[in-house]
């Protein structure tokens, strides 16, 4: 009897204890301390002082572009100089492959017809994400493959943020909840997203009631709003990330060359690929004849994104196309349309697509669309797509916020290379993530995927190349001093370069000495403006020391250094010089679009800055008047693909320098008449009323008992 009675007492206690333990587990998973990327101390401490003077770090230099080209030529002259791998295409995937191969001790070259990140890789939504909308599909469609892709992407997201903390950061993203029953649905979904991230998570999601949601995102439409869920994903500067990947590969011994076109592939007597014929496109811009030469390699990797099929047809002219190009349009709006630290996702647009509304580089980015398209080097955003995005934006912003077409500062279209598996008979079978395939002659193609998983794609591609081409990875003996402090540049990386893949730990150039307070050191040492110093550290990491040192004095008391190339943005002249000397910038478009992001932020501001940028590059690269004219015309043509108004496309350099862009802008927005009709008043209306009184009345003292005197 006693034992039966005790069991009755113990059972509720056990149930209560189990429930408490389960609840504690859920709370721990949701609210456990997280290691926020970029918040830790820099792996390399800031420079110290010597004899009362701060001594900036001394970083290793990479080979010049001309030296890299000479290395390419030697591969065909001497068997010992043959490359293990030649990678065609230096976007996110190609540059990632080059870095992976170089850090495995392989002799690798990566060549790019245009510039690093010139295509799709610079035209993303700027997110580093697992794909919360893909998770929803995985659950509702019971699709394990979708679930696995989300899980893998969340793991890669953490690697991404850790290896490039200066170029990426966490970003809270709001999901508006319009009906009460949506709250538990979104809560479960975002918590499951947190759970899948596990130790790779950034921060836990949370619910905001209506008042708190409006406080966090004041521009949000208030009617029909119940509240909001907020979850976390990553954001990054895509083209700066791409350039950093390429430059890091170069530091580890890879041969990296942009503006180098592949015109053909070479094969041996057995029909196996053994090289590529290339042509440097820069001499042609100077009116000189371009030289073709051959590069020899044991293996060729095709990583050309939307142009994948053009390289595949060089290998096999009759091969079936595998790329299904899809256009994604984005628009840039002024920064006041979104909070500086909160993004927004609309999961249910008018046609069922998803649209993001995110703060980026001081402005607001909105997109994207998803439409079949043709493959062109510079796709144009259609007015239909731009207006659709604006229409969707108006739907969730407050009615008193009038989003106009003239608010669009820049707009672009990026081509996403969706791919079909050639081994699958159905022509509609699109690969969900990425595809790696090898042709009979040995062309290894890596296509598809997204920015977040670039590293995993690169790892799998190099793994396949090692097996297919019989390569032998080896330990890297001559490790570069990437951090600039002497000795191993891998301090605090944790990477062991023994021939295995270590890119999940190898930090990119600029990451070692970066911290969130580095900008203060730059202000104190160089006298930079605060927003300029913050921009430099978030774009170059510890290499901001070099950029600041290359900037010109201002002849003002403050700022001491850093002449802006646009008064609207924190880009300075030192960035142009650094881009030419250390990042292989060869054209003005390289600078306005991919070394800085001016063309993506404001097409008209980029046009206004263009004369100064061309002159700065001309000083560095010894351009003559003809070359400067070529750069002007090509840059204006490029800006047409970035949303530059048609009436500015024919404007001459002289007209731009004379301020005609600003005049045209004012006329378009009809501000001139507004200024004439409403000139600034010299006195307030209350002052006018006081002047109308008699001198005695207007100078009478206030009553000592007046509340104004208390």
From TrEMBL:
A GO cellular component annotation in the UniProt record: mitochondrion
Cofactor: FAD
Endpoints of the signal sequence: none
Keyword tRNA-binding: no
Ranges for domain Alpha-glycerophosphate oxidase C-terminal: 501-628
Record-annotated FAD dependent oxidoreductase domain positions: 84-455
UniProt biased composition (Polar residues): 696-710
UniProt keyword annotations, A-Z: Calcium, FAD, Flavoprotein, Membrane, Metal-binding, Mitochondrion, Oxidoreductase, Repeat, Transit peptide, Transmembrane, Transmembrane helix
GO molecular function: glycerol-3-phosphate dehydrogenase (quinone) activity; metal ion binding
The protein, known as: glycerol-3-phosphate dehydrogenase
């Amino acid at each position: 009897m006693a034992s039966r009675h005790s069991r009755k007492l113990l059972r509720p206690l056990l149930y209560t204890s189990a429930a408490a333990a389960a609840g504690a587990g859920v709370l721990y998973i949701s609210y456990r301390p997280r290691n926020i990327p970029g918040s830790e101390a820099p792996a390399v401490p800031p420079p110290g002082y010597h004899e009362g003077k701060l001594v900036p770090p001394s970083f290793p230099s990479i080979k010049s572009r001309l030296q890299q080209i000479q290395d390419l030529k030697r591969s065909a002259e001497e068997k010992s100089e043959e490359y293990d791998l030649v990678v065609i295409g230096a976007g996110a995937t190609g540059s990632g492959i080059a870095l992976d191969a170089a850090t495995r001790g392989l002799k690798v070259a990566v060549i790019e017809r245009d510039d690093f990140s010139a295509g799709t890789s610079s035209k993303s939504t700027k997110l580093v994400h697992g794909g919360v909308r893909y998770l929803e599909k995985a659950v509702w469609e019971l699709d394990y493959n979708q679930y696995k892709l989300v899980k893998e992407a969340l793991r890669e997201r953490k690697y991404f943020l850790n290896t490039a903390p200066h170029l990426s950061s966490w970003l809270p993203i709001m999901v508006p909840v319009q009906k009460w029953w949506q709250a538990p649905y979104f809560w479960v979904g975002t918590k499951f997203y947190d759970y899948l991230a596990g130790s790779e998570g950034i921060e836990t999601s949370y619910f905001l009631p209506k008042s708190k949601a409006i406080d966090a995102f004041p521009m949000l439409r208030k009617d029909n709003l119940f509240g909001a869920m907020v979850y976390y994903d990553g954001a990054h500067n895509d083209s700066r990330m791409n350039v950093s990947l390429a430059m890091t590969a170069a530091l580890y011994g890879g041969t990296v060359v942009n503006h180098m076109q592949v015109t053909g592939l070479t094969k041996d007597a057995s029909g196996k690929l053994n090289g590529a014929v290339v042509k440097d496109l820069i001499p042609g811009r100077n009116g000189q004849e371009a030289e073709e030469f051959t590069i020899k390699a044991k293996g060729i990797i095709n990583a050309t994104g939307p142009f994948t099929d053009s390289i595949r047809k060089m290998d096999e002219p009759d091969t079936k196309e595998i790329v299904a190009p899809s256009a994604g349009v984005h628009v840039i709006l002024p920064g006041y349309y979104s909070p500086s630290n909160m993004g927004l996702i609309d999961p249910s647009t008018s046609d069922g697509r998803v649209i993001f509304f995110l703060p980026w580089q001081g402005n607001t980015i909105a997109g994207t669309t998803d439409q079949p398209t043709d493959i062109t080097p510079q796709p144009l955003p259609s007015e239909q797509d731009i207006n659709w995005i604006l229409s969707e934006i108006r739907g969730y912003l407050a009615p008193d916020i009038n989003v106009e077409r003239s608010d669009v500062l820049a707009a672009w279209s990026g081509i996403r290379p969706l791919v079909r598996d050639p081994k699958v008979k159905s022509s509609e079978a699109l690969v969900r993530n990425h595809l790696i395939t090898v042709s009979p002659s040995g062309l290894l193609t890596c296509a598809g995927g997204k920015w977040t998983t670039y590293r995993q794609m690169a790892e799998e591609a190099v793994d396949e190349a090692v097996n297919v081409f019989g390569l032998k990875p080896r330990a890297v003996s001559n490790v570069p001093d990437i951090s600039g402090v002497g000795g191993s540049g891998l301090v605090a990386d944790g990477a062991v370069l023994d021939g295995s893949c270590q890119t999940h730990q190898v930090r990119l150039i600029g990451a070692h000495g970066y911290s969130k307070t580095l900008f203060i050191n730059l202000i104190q040492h160089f006298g930079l403006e605060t927003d300029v110093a913050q921009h430099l550290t978030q774009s170059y990491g510890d290499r901001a020391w070099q950029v600041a040192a290359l900037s010109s004095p201002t002849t003002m008391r403050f700022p001491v250094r850093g002449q802006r190339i646009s008064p609207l943005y924190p880009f300075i002249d030192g960035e142009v010089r650094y881009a030419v000397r250390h990042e292989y910038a060869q054209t003005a478009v390289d600078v306005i679009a991919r070394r800085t992001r001016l063309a993506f932020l404001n097409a008209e501001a980029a046009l206004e800055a263009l004369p100064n940028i061309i002159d700065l590059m001309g000083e560095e690269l010894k351009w003559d008047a003809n070359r400067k004219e070529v750069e002007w015309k090509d840059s204006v043509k490029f800006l047409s693909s970035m949303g530059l108004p048609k009436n500015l496309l024919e404007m001459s350099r002289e007209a731009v320098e004379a301020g005609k862009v600003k005049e045209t802008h004012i006329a378009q927005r009809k501000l001139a008449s507004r200024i004439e009709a409403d000139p600034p008043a010299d006195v307030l209306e209350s002052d006018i009323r006081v002047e109308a009184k008699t001198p005695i009345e207007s100078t009478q003292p206030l009553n000592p008992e007046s509340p104004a005197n208390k």
